[in-house]
Amino acid sequence: IARQVNAGGGSGHDRVQVVAALMAIDAGLERLRHAVLEKGADDDR
Q: Is the pLDDT of residue 19 over 60?
């Protein structure tokens, strides 16, 4: 996907979809990071 975007392939709509997908991935990773940090705070090991 990144190669296609960097090469200028696809339409503006394609770029919007790629950015939306990357934002969704980023949000998911952020939620996961918070969940791991919360679990780690409660872990006494």
A: yes
